[in-house]
Amino acid sequence: MRLVLLLAALLLLPLPGQAQAPGSMVEGSLALGPKVLPLPAGPWRVMHLGVGAARTSDQSVPTRFHEAVLVQERAGRAAAVIVARAAQEVAVHWEPHGVCLHEGALARHVVSAVRAALDCRGLVVVAAGRQPGQAAYLDTLHDEGQRRAGWLPPYWISSQFLLSESMHYLHVEYRVAPSVIAPGMAGGAPLAEGARVSVPQALIQQLDGWGVQARSELRRGLYGRQPTAPLPALF
Fold first, then answer.
1. What whole-number distance in Å separates Cα of residue 35 and Cα of residue 167?
2. pTM for this one?
3. Residue 133: per-residue pLDDT
């Protein structure tokens, strides 16, 4: 009888990377459709996990994205957020867009930015508040920010990754609140999208270096493979 109960309990445990319901906690990795999203160390709360209709980067072909939004908190405030989209559509080849073309990034590395072969990463300052025309899957993040005054930072420093090979596509942002990695940057009013912020060069180098391992693990996730090790914590 005890053996039967033990086996039943084991069957209820989530597998590594298994899809989680919104509100649940996950560590290590997260299944995002046919892809695997590597997570920085520590527990992450799933805010949104679903599938949304969209169009390809050149707006010519209807498609679907698997979407996820996760958050880590510190002292009752959002300290880091992950925003991810994944796709695997037959006969869809993705054009360069996003961080591959972002000349105003704090740092940017482009290995390949041609049709059907995208491998780009960079650091971008992103406004934390709700923006006009924002994607619907971000509503859960900003709805919570409206309910909890001061929960969102004025802006995020976003490590952005865009990977695509043939029909495979993975676009991930690892956003961190400046206050948790550089206390001197804690204050200020909410930032408007596109506004410029002075970020210390040492911090840019720190996050840019973090992105080297993240890119390596994301390339595994692009083909549905589990990470070799958890990503280092963002803060």
1. 12
2. 0.87
3. 84
Q: Cα–Cα distance between 150 and 46 in angstroms, integer?
A: 20
Sign of the CA dihedral running 226, 232, 234, 235 = positive
Six-digit token string for 131: 């923006």
Mean pLDDT of 88-104: 86
Please tell me the distance from the alpha carbon of residue 47 to that of residue 77, in angstroms, as a whole number: 14
- For the chain, the straight-line distance linking the first and the last C-alpha, in angstroms and rounded, comes to 46
Contacts 24+ apart (CB under 8 A), 141-147: 141/47, 141/48, 141/69, 141/71, 141/78, 141/81, 144/47, 144/78, 145/78
7, pLDDT greater than 60: no
State residue 9's pLDDT score: 35
Backbone region of residue 191 per phi and psi (left: phi > 0; alpha: psi in -120 to 50; beta: other values)? beta
Distances (CA, A) of 112 to 26, 37, 59, 96, 115: 32, 21, 21, 9, 9
Token pair in block for residue 139: 């509503």
More confident residue, 165 or 12: 165
Look at the alpha carbons of 144, 146, 149, 150 in this order and tell me if their dihedral is positive or negative: positive
Residue whose C-alpha is closest to residue 85's, from 97, 102, 74: 97
Write down the residue that tokens 């080849």 correspond to.
93
Helix (H) or strand (E) holding 213: helix 201-221
Q: Which two tokens stand for residue 171?
A: 């676009």
Whole-number pLDDT of residue 189: 55
